[in-house]
Amino acid sequence: MLAIRLPVAIERRLERLAKRTGRTKTYYAREAILKHLEDLEDIYLADQVYARYLKGEEKTIPIEAVMKRLGVDDDLEG
Fold this sequence. Notes:
Layout: H1 8-21, H2 25-54, H3 63-70
């Protein structure tokens, strides 16, 4: 179970959408979460890794080494 508080304007938009389409507000809230959760995870995890990189706690690999390992042409200019 999840309870969330939304800004009034967002709540109204959600109510209008639900009424116009015959679906519930819960349906649309669930859809929005499912659609964007992976993006949010990527953003916040990338921020954490970047912070560790800035502190010298994260190891990096030069792009040339990655490309060689993957067997990709090493002409980065195109």
